[in-house]
Amino acid sequence: MALLVNVHLESFPSALEIAAKNGNSDIIELLLEANADVNATKVRCPSALQLASFHGHRNIVQLLLKHGADVHVQTQQFPPALQGAASKGQNEIVELLLDNGADIDAHDQQYPTALQSAVADCNKQLVESLLDKGASINAQGGLLPPPVNIASANGNRSILKLFLNRNMNAQVQGETWARALLVAAFHGRRRMVEFLIENGADFNQQVQSSGAFLLPSGETLITALQAAAGGGHKAIIKLLIKSGADVGASDHRSPTPLQAAVTGGHKDAIQLLLDNGAAVDDHNQHCPTAIQRAIINCDRRTVELLLCRGADANLQGGQLAPPLYIAIAMGHRGIVQLLLDHATNVDTQCERYGTALMLMSSLRLRDIAKVHNHNIPVMPNHYSRRLDALMLETRRDDVARTKFAN
């Protein structure tokens, strides 16, 4: 009889697993009395305990545990019992599994911890229960960020208060909380940002580890003000600046708040940062200037604003060519004219492309070029072909960032 109850196809669940999923306790009892294997699994089929926990059948979970079900069993395509129950908000089953030896911080690359799932579902009762039983607020698995980050992104202050009350420090300190502030700023959670600052979060701390956010350009945001600027959240920018955030904060690889705002095309944020002293020409070997970024975005209004605020139209930063070269090669006639009106040097020699006049000539902007020089030099054919192709390629900003290196 035992042989029959344990027979199943390779990719099809056993009788016990089907009954556990459907909540058929009477059938479960019959199968267990017939010596069904309580811990049987296959690559594509979870155990009976995993299924009963996931689908919320508490009485069956109790029955399976009584008959020796292993709380640690996991399969490739289904979460372990504890994580499955937590992800579905099965609070009583989570409690039952923990009482029977389940690892409260269990996680892997595929599945998050029970606490991460509870926070993501805004399940305060379960979060509190897990914390009372010793769950780590730093354990992280699956594709979810750490629990503190999840609460910040969701704007869930009640859950974050639970974390704060269990923090070893009297105030919010360290990179964990700086990252939480960055997350809240990036998602536009003003009240959460305010809450974290009031509880001592360091708004100028740079978050260097994994968990920071990226701009569309692929650049990393490492401070709360950068994150707020990159997301265009004007109210949060005001709050952070009022609290004393550094408007020029960056490192050698991350953009300044102003550069982040320009990359995101957030005009109100750009204006606000400039009004509060942001340096218009900040750049380094990895980060282009604000005006270079505006040109790549085809954002003539921002280019004009930056020029009026004193931006150097000849300045080159990062791996991009000078502003005029970018505008010419991308065919932005209006921006080209703006730059020329602000005394951009058309005779500057670029090692890869020659002078700006040569580039204008090659890319069919001869009508503008003639105004500045009646004797336009002729560019070699191979140079002309390369730049014609470049003009077509650089319609997308990600291509522009890699093709304009000198």
Automatic annotation (TrEMBL):
Gene3D superfamilies attached to this UniProt entry: Ankyrin repeat-containing domain
ANK repeats mapped onto the chain: 11-43, 44-76, 81-109, 176-208, 220-252, 253-285, 319-351
Xref: SUPFAM superfamilies: Ankyrin repeat
InterPro entries the UniProt entry points to: Ankyrin_rpt, Ankyrin_rpt-contain_sf
PROSITE patterns recorded: ANK_REP_REGION, ANK_REPEAT
Key words of the record: ANK repeat, Repeat
Name the UniProt record assigns to this protein: Uncharacterized protein
Natural source organism: Fusarium oxysporum f. sp. lycopersici (strain 4287 / CBS 123668 / FGSC 9935 / NRRL 34936) (Fusarium vascular wilt of tomato)
